[in-house]
Amino acid sequence: MLKIEALQVNYGAIQALRGVSLEVRSGEVVTLIGGNGAGKSTLMKAISGLEPSAGGRIVFEGRDITALAPHKRVGLGISQSPEGRQVFADQTVRDNLLLGAWLRKDEAGIARDIAAQFEVFPRLRERQDQLAGTMSGGEQQMLAMSRALMARPRLLLLDEPSLGLAPLVVREIFAVIRELKARGVTILLVEQMANQALKVADRAYVLKTGEITSSGAARELMDDPAVREAYLGKH
Fold first, then answer.
1. Distances (CA, A) of 211 to 100, 161, 174, 222
2. DSSP per residue over 144-182, as a string?
3. Whole-number Å distance between alpha carbons of 124 and 199
4. Which of 7, 31, 32, 213 is 20 to 30 A from 222 via CA?
């Protein structure tokens, strides 16, 4: 479904991504782990079209989208729940969800999908008329994920969904990720909690200072001594 080939992204003279290549196949969950500053969020922004590439290609369902505008990538089926949530703070929960579906014209389908998101995250139903900026971090993360799903994506990008959240909320978020996986949603997951990410993923890549240093089945990487020591806190 998604192929990234030798992707390069620069911030001035700094190479944030140095020839990154990876693949996400239809129906699987792939996680990208790495330390702070490794380039994980830069890669997600590049896939969404929010960071220009200096080299390489991004191919989605056989089409080169490297130079495609962000909104056109959404139209093709790529939707992102960004790092830091980035909800529309001065809009209500319901309006945030409607904005997630802004390219869609099927009003009945949009209404059904909002109802479905309220089933997944009941707290959003309770707060549907509340301004998003007044909600807790966990509630905003639920909203960011639901907003991304309102686009009915073929590929869902989840960037640090557990960042700054209480353990109870983290468990709830990962339960939803497992549910999405069971439904066959294709997911690329960037996550600081590597242990949780590897448990839910089919395959994984390790990104270090802008380069892929390891890849393979998620369970194999969990047993890799170098990965365990660097990212799982185990020796």
1. 32, 22, 27, 19
2. HHHHHHTT--SEEEEE-TTTT--HHHHHHHHHHHHHHHH
3. 27
4. 7
**Domain ranges in the chain?**
2-77+154-232, 93-152
- Three-state helix/strand/coil letters over 116-147: HHHHHCHHHHHCCCCEHHHCCHHHHHHHHHHH
**Tokens of residue 153, six digits:** 């994506």
For residue 16, count CB atoms less than 10 angstroms from its CB and return exposed for 0-12, middle for 13-18, buried for 19 or more.
Answer: buried
Sheet with 55-60, edge to edge strand ranges: 14-24, 2-11, 55-60, 63-64
pLDDT digits (tens, 9 = 90+) for 78-134: 999 988 888 999 999 999 999 999 988 999 999 999 999 999 999 999 999 999 999
Q: Report residue 25: phi and psi, to 5°.
A: -90, 155
Tell me the CATH number for domain 2-77+154-232. Answer: 3.40.50.300
228 touches 234 (CB < 8 A): yes
How many other CB atoms sit within 10 Å of the CB of residue 59? 15
Q: Which of 1, 15, 7, 20 is nearest to 214 (CA)?
A: 20
Contact between 30 and 15 under an 8 Å Cβ cutoff? The reply is no
* pLDDT one-digit tens code per residue, 40-65: 999 999 999 999 999 999 999 999 99
**Contact assessment for residue 193 and residue 162, using Cβ atoms and an 8 Å cutoff:** yes
